[in-house]
Predict the structure.
Amino acid sequence: MSKAVCFMTKNFGKYDVKSIGSYMAIGGFNALKKAVNMTGEEIADTLATAKIKGRGGAGYDMGRKWSQAKSVIADNKVVVCNADEGEPCTFKDRTLIEKDPFNLIEGMIIAGYTVDAQNGYIYLREEYSHLRPLILDAIKQAKTYGFLGENILGKGFNYNIHLYSGAGAYVCGEGTALVESIEGKSGRPRMKPPFIKQCGLYNLPTCVNNVESLSLVSSILLDDEKKYLNYGTEGSVGTKLVSVGGNVKNPGVFEIPFGVTVRDIVYGLAGGIVDDREIKLIQFGGASGKIATKSILDTPYTYEDLRKAGVGVGSGAILVVDERTSVIDFLRTTQEFFSHESCGQCTPCREGNRHIKLLLKKVAEGTHTTDDLASMRKIAKIMAMSSLCGLGETAQSALVSAMKNFEEDFQIK
Amino acid sequence: MAFGTNDKVLTKELAKQIDLILFAHENDGSKLVGILLDIQEVIPNHYIPTEVAYYLADKLDVKVTTIYDCITFYSSISDKPRAKYPIQVCNSIVCKINHNDSLFETLKELLNIDLNEITYDGRFTLESVACFGACDVAPAVRVNGKVYGHLTTKEKIADMLNELI
Amino acid sequence: MSIVNIKINNIPLQVEKGTKILEAAKKIHIDIPHLCYHPDQTIKAHCRICTVEVVGSRRLLAACSTEVWEGMEIHTDTKLVRDTQVGILELILANHEQNCLSCARNQNCDLQNLCSRFNILQPQLEKVSEASVIEDNNPSLVRDLSKCVKCGRCVKVCNEVQGVSALTYAGRSENFAVTTAYNKPLLETDCILCGQCSSVCPVGAIVERDNTQKVLDVLQDPSKHVIVQVAPSVRVAIGDEFGLSRGAIVTGKMVTALKMLGFDKVFDTNFAADVTIMEEGSELLDRIKNNGKLPMITSCSSGWVNYMEKHYGDYIDHLSSAKSPQQIFGAISKSYYPEVAGIAVKDIVTVSVMPCVAKKFEADRPEMGRDGIKDVDIVLTTRELSKLIKYVGLDFVNLDEGSFDSPLGLGSGAGAIFGASGGVMEAALRTVAEVYTGTELKELNFKEVRGWEGVKEAEISLGDTSIKVAIAHGLGNAKKIMEAISTGTCDYTFVEIMACPGGCIGGGGQPIQSTTDIKKLRMDALYDIDQTHSIRKSHENPDVTALYKNYFEAPLSHKAHKLLHTSYKKIEKQYDFSYLNKK
């Protein structure tokens, strides 16, 4: 029996994604109509009750974020939708945009209303450029129907949404780098402080949200029966979109209630391993996530349980690797990714990635020494402790967890 | 010192196209990333020639160093000419464990070029790129924005190439 | 300002709200290691070597950028912090070509200081640096990217302070570099060779082109009569290199050092500065009287002249045609001086010591000389002079006080203040006001043109009339004035512009680690020299009067025009797109 549920994905396949009329016929924009009759604080509180942790991977409480954004006193504020989804094995945001674009638009408008912003910006990764016409058209139709522009729904609320494109840089998924990119520069993260909620895009107070986080908003606001709160656990309320990929028979995006086990997802929803092979490792949260042995299969998929097991939810990516791939090869491919994507400006990440790449090559060739292993640990720690942004901080998560969970692969020959 | 060659990359026609793109972006230098992507699309070899970068510095309120920084920073923007159809093969972990190595080899064989080389007729280059979110259809390839997935057999790969005239 | 209570290494401390951890630590005399931080630039926070522990934070925080909060507890001395700092230093070293012994910044290098501080003995990581092509095809600056530690200080000073933006970051990850657009050599970019980059670089990635060996060689040549001129800004800065207090006036020792180096005559650029005032002041009066191009803009800053030629080429006729003091001295040294000294021109070698790297470019300009003889043969920066003094083993601090030689060694107080922003303006006004009004000035100090403000404006009364003047230092500020001029939204008559922040005392060739505070001390020192000088006006300098009486006749004379004035040329852009508008 499928453990998947249908809360934020309830619109999938239920309307013509090119037609706002079709969306409205299934109840689209009712959440917005409800929202403009609430105060910003009430909306933020509703989301806070749902305990939504930012779905991009950073996990900051969404209700609290919107409440803080609202309380910033400024004439001009902006909302940003982070659609840069660059984490390998993560394609849930892509799916949400493909299958429910108007819902995202609605969520963005509600965000703008809540925090008192006048402009919303969608930053869509260049690799999803085929979705630009869809989004642009959705924005245009929303404007025609008075859900964007001036005096929306007669509430004196002015709001416009602008679509910006990334240009092939994973690091632009980081909030300050994203903002630099929209401002027409290379996407190198800014130092913090100042924080983006005070000084972000065009130096304005900026509230950045992930696509999935925004896509939850309308469903939560219309959830009078509090169905969402019944899903999940105490520490992980509600549902999550997971992107399962790798050596599974049925890769894809699934909406699961928090609390189902990893086995439910991998074998239940994703159909198990191709050719029924054994699992070598599972990586949680994308390339920046930690890896676990197949002992994780019976762990419930929740923030708290995964953390206790030494991994994390992150972006919701679940990468299943079978026995044919060696851990070291896996790590080297992951390292290639970060070596390619590091922006290069801070020493720990730029030089740290460079050296780990060289050291992993030695491990692969069996020519490494104990000093080399110590070096790897030291460099990984320096990167985690002192990098300027999250990329450097998490680039060696897989390596560090591998050195713990797969010690035998690092043995000196 | 002015560089004048007879064979100018920035022809009057291209300059006109670029001016239109700039107009569509309100001649706003802060929209540089989108401007560069749009210009790249109208240039047959999908890249930004050096002259174009200097032309933009002239027309927009942006320094040529900022433009150069963007061109070298972003993977989707190239400063070197590519083919009409750059075949971008995903090199990230999901596609790797789904046999992108044989995908690479087959493409090299069918096109008779190596990575980053261009076919004799200028139609194809072979590029190795980072994950573009097509993990559910791995192993995948992206060509001018269109994704081709499940490329597990020689036939499927050949079919895709034949589509690209 | 509200006060915040914090603890650093368990030491309680009170600081103003908004203070960064790095500054707070300085107050209790703890130096947190740093590389990309520079007090005169916006904070970058990307070398990460200043990261420290803060109770409550799971990661280390950068001390240069993190503001203190009430109750913050900072630890700069835990094992984690030390290991991280050392680890980051090792990462930098592995990607830095270590040829210290042959590097211009040997013993004057932030990276060496950090290595010494952290007792780095053996390299722990694999060497990943590669020797790179050294760019040295311009007279002023040499770039060696294999030494770059990617601190970004040069990018900041070029972009934010100077507004020239010749340098930039480029690329990602291992390809991340600090370079020019398309890696072109400096001369083929927007660069105007002000050398501020070389002044802020912590290592030897960008240095001045070294002419010390040339000078040593020529000093050993018995057939050559080698004379040297020294700019005003050198005498209040070179003491830095010998441990003297910042802004100390060391003219006497400097002159003795030059004589002991073997120069046949030691002359003073201040003398030529006075001549500059004669020429330029006369030119200004001429333009005012005869509806010449106004505002007239000073031309003694060679970086500024480069900037005008490259970026405001349509306005070069605003520039005064008078050469800079360096070049006026040079021209006099190859015309008037050989006559009075009885030495053949071809045997004279004129060396100048300048706070400036652009002056190396200026001396090489083809128009700065005649008949195959250059006005100025070799230019040294303050930094290079200090190297020469050490080379010949002089104990600078204990040298006797020497005096400049005649007839080109006497400069007035007006000449001395050329090195400060506003100094040229003030020197010119003293002469112009007296000549214009025909009456002696009661007040010689034009305080309204002094000071550190980026753009200064003043209205100066000239008897029955008054003129508006403006002064800018640093090219970022100069641009503001040029914008006003190009849009016709100002009514200045005379404008002084110095390319470097503070004027020449902040020049690109001055001792490394010249911060704003130090530059202000140097400015004060120059005004001190002026205040205590017996001759404070250029036109009252008897050696200058003699020069005109015996040689040039009068300012702007035919001979003066030929030798002491120059012309400028608009430099065309890298790419000329005018063909797009042609039929």
